[in-house]
Amino acid sequence: MEQYIIKGGNPLVGEVNIGGAKNAALGILAAAVMSNETVKIENMPNVNDTKVLLQAISSIGAQVQRIDDNTVEINGSNIQSLCIDDGFIRKIRASYYLLGALLGKYKKARVALPGGCAIGSRPIDQHLKGFRALGAKVTIENGMIKAEADRLVGAHIYFDVVTVGATINVMMAATMAEGRTILENAAKEPHIVDVANFLNSMGADIRGAGTDVIRIRGVHRLKGAEYAIIPDQIEAGTFMCAAVATKGDITVKNVIPKHLESITSKLLEMGAQIEESDDAVRVVATRRCHPTNIKTLPYPGFPTDMQPQILIALGLCDGTSIVTESIFENRFKYVDELARMGSNVKVEGNTAFVTGISEYRGANVTAPDLRAGAALVIAGLAAEGYTTVDDIHFIQRGYENFEGKLRSLGGMIEKVNNDKEAQKFKLKIG
Ligand code: EPZ
């Protein structure tokens, strides 16, 4: 089984190009099937999640043409099936975006019910509430969600919780409903805005994305388009936290600094120096940082997808920090793995009390999910000695060439398949 082997101790120094936003790409790729013309999507992150979603899109008959690793053309004119089977949903939950896209376009769709995952139960009641409000009959039979409607008619929908997934899914279905839809208490993440901008580039009429009220006027047809996905704020934030944890100096390039404000402000509180330019942010943290408190919130609050990464950096500060996870009910599982590296973190409910230590010690750890996996790699790069990280398939879901980018910054990390290759790495590094 592939794993990372890491020798810690080198401060990470240099520049790293940030790729397209995974959580924008998944909504955009699904929305692309709503047109019967060719849609060209650029700056797509070449990660396992986008690969699987493209397989799902191809499996229903849409034409998918990879132009290069980060560019794809999709044409939804020849879709034969409206059923997305369990295999794809088990691999990535976000295949459920095809429910909103196909329901909007064909007024019918069937998608396997997504399960929970390592970070929480992740219900989809708000997705189904939105589809029903638009006039769809939605049933769940034998683990499949079936949605169909004679007509979809615009509605005034109030989300009970702020939910990225339901905002995107219902926005897609409403794009081709008759009349006006208003989404209240909508999520405001940059990737919501990106999906809305993409749909508008295909001829949709969506206003207010990025605020908590999104107004949609349904259209009959969506045309072809060319679109480039925004940079990934979470990939950028992951490298920014790696700079702090390894006492390094990293410039993340091809970013939108505005999207990183909550992360930047926390790193400043911790004592890092930050330099911003139009499309880059430089993080310098060559001395031990100060503690601070974090509460994850919907955008523009501190992102839940950055909680593990910043906790790793806080674990090396000269004091105690409090990290509160308010979005998911089980997002501290990785703390048990981090304890193997000598951390001093106490979790009570959805709050972690993090007492800084002088340094992590290398250990064998296992990634419990995507972002925690990336965080454990950061801990390994900051640690004294060798660390191995297992189950790196989680990390490969959302980070393109993660080990290559870290190596370019001076990180001593390699992806290996067995102990023999791990030994070879140790001999090479010494
Ligand atoms: C998206 O998940 C992201 N995934 C997650 O990123 C991210 O952590 C999350 O948004 C929050 O920002 C993708 O975009 C593919 P939600 P999503 O619906 O849409 C509750 C990563 O690492 N809720 O905003 O599933 C839910 O339980 C991944 O890239 C309902 O109660 O998140 C949670 O407590 C991990 N009913 C809260 O809302 C619903 O119908 C936020 O969930 C939907 C959600």
Give keywords.
globular; 25% strand; four-stranded mixed β-sheet; binds ligand EPZ; 15 helices; 24 strands; alpha/beta; 430 residues
How is this structure best summarized?
The protein contains 15 helices and 24 strands.
Plain-language structure description:
There is one protein chain. The model has no long low-confidence stretch (mean pLDDT 97). This protein has a 4-stranded mixed beta sheet, with helices on both faces. A 4-stranded mixed beta sheet has the order 2-15-17-16. Helix 10 links the parallel strand 18 and strand 19. It contains 15 helices and 24 strands. The chain is globular, with a radius of gyration of 22 Å. With 430 residues, it is α/β, with parallel strands linked by helices. The chain binds ligand EPZ. Ligand EPZ binds next to helix 1, helix 5, helix 6 and helix 12.
Spatial strand arrangement across the major sheet = 22-23-1-24
Secondary structure tally: strands: 24
State the separation between the terminal residues, measured CA to CA: 24 Å
| Overall mean pLDDT | 97
Over all CA atoms, what is the radius of gyration? 22 Å
Helix fraction by DSSP (H/I, runs of at least 4): 25-40%
- What class, by secondary structure content? alpha/beta
Number of helices: 15
Compounds present? ligand EPZ
How big a fraction of the residues is strand? 15-25%
Which of globular, elongated, flat, extended, rod-shaped describes the shape? globular
> Can you tell me the residue ranges where pLDDT is under 50 for at least 5 consecutive residues?
none
Biggest pleated sheet: 4 strands, mixed
